Amino acid sequence: MKDFQQILQEINNKKVAPLYLVQGSEAYFIRQFEKAIIKNCLAPEDIAMNFVQIDLTEQTLDDFLFEATSYPFLGERKVIFVREPRFLTGQKGQVIDQMLQEKFIDYLKDPASFTVAIFFAPYEKLDRRKKLTKQLLKMCQLVDVTSPKPHEAEKYFAQYLENSGYRMEDKAWHLFMQLTAGNLSKMIHELNKISVYQAQTEVITLETVEQLVPKNLEYNVFELNRLVMAGDIQNALQFYQELLMKKEDPIKIIALLISEFRLLLQVKILQEQHSGQRQISDQLGIHWYRIKLALEKCSHFSLEQLADALESLIDVDYQIKTGQMDATTSFDFFVLSFCERTQMISN
Amino acid sequence: MMSSYQALYRVWRPQRFDDVAGQQMITQTLKNAIANHNPAHAYLLTGPRGTGKTSVAKIFAKAINCPHSVDGEPCNECEICQEITSGSLGDVIEIDAASNNGVEEIREIREKANYAPTRAEYKVYIIDEVHMLSMGAFNALLKTLEEPPEKVIFILATTDPHKIPATIISRTQRFDFRRISQETIIQRMVLILNEENITFEKEALQLIAQTAEGGLRDALSILDQVISYANGSVTQVAVRDITGSITQELLIEYLQLLYHHDTSEALQALNQLLAEGKEAYRFIEDALMLCRDILLAKAVKSDVAVTFKYAHHTPAFDAIVQQLPTNFLYQAVGVLSQTQKNLKQTTHKEIYLEVATIQLCEISDKNSATATPAGDYEVVDTAAYEEIVHQLQDMQKQLEQLQAIDKVASEPKIVEPKQTLISKNNQEDASVVPNQSEVFAVLDEATHQDRAFLFDLWPDFISQLEVGQSAIMNNGTPVAASPNTWVITFEYKILVERFETDELISKSLQQFLETIHQSQIKIIALTNEQWKNVRENYILERKKLKQGIPVDFSEEEKKEYEQRIQEEEKTKEIINQAVAFFGEDTVKIMEDDNK
C-alpha cells in the first residue's frame, strides 16, 4: 500500500486517480490532500464552476452520479468531494436502494475520465462486508489519514517545525507537547498562531507557549498540583480561583487533583520498592515524562504525607458534595493545612 | 440640555490594542496578523468576564478595516472607525448569541456572509456569548467555518469554552484571556480617577479590585456606584457599604473578643453589626474569608495582599496575624462553616450566629495542633463551665421553641441534642455504685473460707434452679463472700436488674441455703464494671485506713462518704449534660488538679 506522502507526490506529478477514498480523521492530512487535489486538478478560474461538494447527509448518491457523469463546464476536469458517506460504515441511517446500488457500482467499475471523485470517510472503521464498501475499496485509491500515534506525531511535528524555520526551547517543547496531547493537527494549528506572533524570531520560548497555547483542564490541574506540592500557597490559591472563574467545575477539578495525588502516591510506593523510572512507567502504563515529573514532585514528601494529602482531598470532595462547605473555602483550607503540616514536619 | 450619563466602563472602553489591560501577547498577535494581512477566518476569544474579549473584538474589526491603520492599530478617527465604534457600520455585525441562539439566525448569517462587504474591506461577525447557541445553530455555524467565504471574519467570544463543540474550536484560532491582576486593575482605576479629578483612598481601590476578582468591567461598575454613592470621592467605607461587606476593623475586633473568651462583649459586637443591617450570611462569609486571609498571611511570609479575598494590610491586621494561633483559626473555621451551612436552612439566622459566637468563645488555644476544623474542646474552669451550661440551656430552649415554630413552616427536624440526652440517661454510669458501703462491709469481713465455700456451692445452686432462672444465674460469677453476704457480678446491667426483681430466684435461693447452710445469706449483685470500681475504691480506702484512720466506719465517716458519692454524682451529671450538648466526640473529661 502506498503511504500518504507517496500519494501526495503522485498527485503533484499530475498522476491523479479517478476515485479516492480518504479514510481517517487527521485534519491536517485531510487539508493537505484537499489542497493538493484542487491545486493539481483545477485551474484557479475553474474552481467556481467545476468544483462540487456533495454532502450525503443532505444529498443522495443519485446527485453524485449526476454530477460525476455530466461534463465539466469549460475546463478539462471536474472535482467532486463527497462528505459523510456513512453508507460505507456499520452505522444505520443512509439507506440506498437496490437500483441505485447497482448504478453506483457500475460507475465505480467505469468512472468518467473527466471526473475526480474523493470520498472523505473520517470514521474509525468501515464495514468491509458491505457490497458497496467492498467495490469502492477495490476500485479506488485508498488514502490513509488516520491520526498518527502520539510519538509519531511528535516526530512528524519536529520535522515540520524545522522546515518552518523555528526552534523551541527544551522546556517550551515539553510544555507544547503536554498541551497538544499528541494531536498533530492541534500542534500545527498552534504553531501557525505562534508564527503570527513572532514572524521574525526563530526561537520559541517557554513564555510564548505558556501564553498563547490554550490549556486544557488536565494540564491546569497538573499545574495546580505542582504549586501545592511546591508549597506555593499564594499561587496555588490564585490559580484555583482562576480555574473557577473560567467556569471549571470544582468537583471536576478536585476529582482530577485526587487522581494526580493518587499517581504521586503510586509512584512513591513503587519507588520505595526500588523501581526505576522506566519500570514505574511500564507498570502504571503512563508516559515516562509524566513519571519523571512525578518523581521530582514527590521526592520531598514522605509516603505518609502523600497518603494524608490524598485522604484530605477525598474529604474535601465529600464536604463539597454534601454541601458542608463551599468549594472555594474547603479547597483553600486544604491547601493551607497541607502546606502547614508538610512544612512543620520538614523543618 | 442634559447629556446622558455613560457608565465608566463604556467611557473608558479601550479603543486601541495597546490600551487593553493585561493581554499583551494576544493583542500583539492580532496586531501582527493585521499588519501582515494574514488574519485567520475565525477567532475564538475565551476568558472570564470583564477581561476585554468584546473590546478586543471591536478593536480588531476596526483595525482590519481602517484604511489608515498603523502597525495593526486603528486610527479611531476615520469615518469607518467611528461608525464601527458607534455600531452603525453594516459590515461589522455584532450578535448576542444569548438572545439569538436558534438555527434560523445562524442560517441567516450564513446566507448574508456570502455577499461581499459593502464599504469596509472585511465583513466581521462578532458573536458574543457564543456558548449559548443551540446544537443546531452550532452545526450551521460549523458549515460556514468549514468553507469560510472570502473577506469574512468570525470572532466568537465566550466565557465558557467547555460548552463549545470541539469541531468549532479546531476551526478557529483560540485565545485564552487571562484574569487581570489586582495591580493592573488598581492602576487602571487610578488612571481613570486622576483623569476625572476624583479623590480616592488607596485601600478603597484595593477593596474594589478584590471584589471584582479579576474583571475590569466589574471593578469599574463598582467604582461607578461608589462615586455616585459617596458624592465624588472614593472611600473605603463607601466601598464596604456598596458591597455590603463588614469593615475589617469590626471583624478583627470580633475575632479578638472570641479569642479572649469574652462572650458577652462578642455577643454585643455581633448584635451591633446585625442592628446596622448587615446580613447574617454575609457576616459569616466575611468572617470565614478573614480567617482564611489570616492563615494565609501566617503561612506565607512575603507580601500576599494580592491573594487576599477580604483583608488588606493594616497595623491591626498584622497584629492579629501575630496573635491568633493557627489552631484557633482552624477551629473557628470549623464552627463558622458549620454555621454557614445551618444558616441556609433557617429563618432565625441571628440565633445561629449567637450560638456560634458562644461556641467560638469556648475555643481553647491550648490544644495540640489539630488540623481538623472540628477540634477538641476542654473544660477549663468549673464555675465558668456551669455558667456556660446554663447559658446554653437557655439557648437551647430558645432554639427548640423557634424550631417548633419553624416546623410549622418548614419540614420537621429532629433536635439532636435532645436525642443524645435521652440516650445518655438510659445508660447509667458504671462508676456509680448504689450500695457501695454494703459491699465495703462485705469486703471488710471477707474470708477465704467463705469464698471457697461460695465457689463450692455455686454450681450446685444453679443446677437446682428452674430453667429460666438458671439461664440468668449462669451469667453470674461469684466474686467475694463474707459469712452472711455474697457478692456476685453480671456482665450487663439488665441481668442485675433481672436478678434483683426475680422473686423465684431469691425464694429458691433461700430454700437452698436453708437446707445446706442453715443460715440466712444476702446476695449483692453488681455489674462487672461496678465491681471493678468498687474494688479500686476499696483499695484506696484501705490505704487511707492504714494511715491512721479508724478501721470501722463511724457514722460521721459514713456521712462524709455518702457526701462524696453525691458530689461525684453531681459531676457526672454535669458531664452528661456537656456530652449531650457538644456530642461525645468533642467533650474531653479532665481531672481538676487543684482540688
Topology, pairings included?
The complex is a heterodimer of chains A (347) and B (595).
Chain A: H1 4-12, E1 19-23, H2 27-41, H3 47-50, E2 51-55, H4 61-69, E3 78-83, H5 98-109, E4 115-121, H6 131-139, E5 141-144, H7 150-163, E6 167-168, H8 170-180, H9 184-197, E7 203-204, H10 206-212, H11 217-229, H12 233-245, H13 250-272, H14 277-284, H15 288-298, H16 303-321, H17 327-346
Parallel strand pairs in A: 1-4, 1-5, 2-3, 3-4, 6-7
Chain B: H1 8-11, H2 24-35, E1 42-46, H3 53-65, H4 79-86, E2 92-96, H5 103-113, E3 123-128, H6 135-146, E4 152-158, H7 166-169, E5 173-176, H8 182-195, E6 199-200, H9 202-212, H10 216-229, E7 233-234, H11 236-243, H12 248-259, H13 263-275, H14 280-299, H15 315-323, H16 326-343, H17 349-361, E8 377-378, H18 382-409, H19 416-426, H20 436-445, H21 448-463, H22 467-473, E9 477-481, E10 485-490, H23 493-501, H24 503-516, E11 522-527, H25 528-546, H26 555-582, E12 587-588
Parallel strand pairs in B: 1-4, 1-5, 2-3, 3-4, 6-7, 8-12, 10-11
Antiparallel strand pairs in B: 9-10
Helix pairs in contact in B: 2-3, 3-4, 5-6, 8-9, 9-10, 9-11, 10-11, 12-13, 13-17, 14-15, 14-16, 16-17, 19-26
